Amino acid sequence: MSLFLDLHTHKTKQERDVFAIQSISLTESTFLAMPKTKPIAIGIHPWYAKLEELTKNMKYLRVLARQENVKMIGECGLDSLRGEPIENQLQILEAQLVLAEELQKPLILHCVKTFDELIALKKRLQPTVPMVIHGFNKKQEMAQQLVNQGFYLSFGDAVLKSEEVALTLEKLDHPFFLETDDATINIKEVYAKVATIKKITVDELKDVIFANWKKMGLL
Ligand SMILES: [Zn+2]
User: Separation of 181 CA from ligand 1 center, angstroms?
Assistant: First the structure.
């Protein structure tokens, strides 16, 4: 039987039947004590990213991201409500996207009110690695627009809280992922809810999501 996959979490502790990818921000002072075996993602989060530190941070990231347990690059991305001006955030994201492509590792993306900029960046650079937008909580129309552009979507606690997001997921006919992020929920609750939305069993959902993950070549 497949494991539960928690594609994006900030919690360090994990259950045995969950394959969780812990996201670590490079600018945290803890980054030198990086886990060596458990699955992680590492990147420069837009909230903490500073353009003046980009060269230095990319030097570190370039080394750390090669580690075998680094499954994804990120979370990185764009946020119009926090962090540096979008032009700076775009440069910081582009550097990480180029690295992800070089290492052939997928990107886990944070995107707040900047979908147009993100789509434009993807069109310009045309990366071959999967780009997953985490914490997706928008309407069906936006979801469709993003998957049409080749993005993957990952859903978290919004599915439990919002009927609208549940409807987006119900209508979505494209591989997706589930996550807990920094919410105090268990990934199994998210699976249970999504299984109901999709009218399948939890075991079937586990298989579907695990197959999506394998398709990315990461197990
Ligand atoms: Zn996160």
Answer: 5
